C-alpha cells in the first residue's frame, strides 16, 4: 500500500512539475522579460540578465522537483565550470539535463531546437536569453563560435538529442567543429540518471518505481593541441568527435560497472 501511495504521489508530482515549468516559462515571457527589456541597457547586458533570470528559475525548479520527491541529485566538480570562453560538452540521458546544467551556470548559452522557438511556453526564455537555433547548421556553428570568442559559455550535447538507453553513442560533429574553430576551453560533463526516466522513448507519465537520481560529474579540460595541429581541418573534426564519443562511452561504462 505504501509503495502505491508513493508511486501515485510521484506521478502527480511529475505532472505538477511539467505544469509548473510550462507556466513559469510563459510568465517569464509575458511579465518578467518585458520588464527587463524596458531598462535602458546595452543588448549584450540584457541577454546576460535574461540568462541569469533563466538560471535562477531553473535553480528553483530543480529544487522544487527535489523537495516534492520527484528526484534527488548530486554534483561533483562544479568549481570547474563558469569560465569565460568555455564550451561544456555533455551526454544527454534525460529530458531535464539542460535545465539541470543551466541551473548551475548563471550566464550560459545553448543550442535549441527550431520548433521550440514557436512554443509559447519556451519561446520567451529562448529569445531573450539569446539562445542559438539549430535551424541552419552553418549559422549555428558560426553563432556558437562567435559566442565563445566573445567570452561566453556554451552548453552542447554532441548527440543532438537524448540518448537511447542500451545503445552506443553516436555523436554529431557540430560540437567538435565549434570547439576547434573557436579554440575554446572544452570541459566534459558526464550525466547519469538512475533509474532511467524521461528518455526520448518514454512519456512523462511513464515514471520509474522510485524517484530518480541525477548525477553530474565535471571532468578535466580536454587538450586540443594535437587536434589543432591536424590537417585538413575536416580530419581534425572527425578525430576529435571520435575522441569525445569514446570519452563519454568510457565514462558510461565506468559508472555502470563501478557506480562512480
Descriptive labels:
globular; seven-stranded mixed sheet; alpha/beta; Glycerol-3-phosphate (1)-acyltransferase; single chain; 260 residues; 15% strand
Describe this structure in words.
By secondary structure, this protein is of the alpha/beta class. The two termini are 33 Å apart. The protein is built from eight helices and seven strands, in the order H-H-E-E-H-E-H-E-H-E-H-E-E-H-H. Helix 4 links the parallel strand 3 and strand 4. It is globular and about 65 Å long. Strands 1-7-6-2-5-3-4 form a seven-stranded mixed sheet, with helices on both faces.
List the helices and strands and how they pair.
Layout: H1 2-37, H2 43-67, E1 71-76, E2 86-90, H3 97-102, E3 108-112, H4 123-128, E4 132-133, H5 137-149, E5 153-156, H6 174-182, E6 185-194, E7 212-218, H7 225-228, H8 233-258
Helix pairs in contact: 1-2, 5-6, 6-8
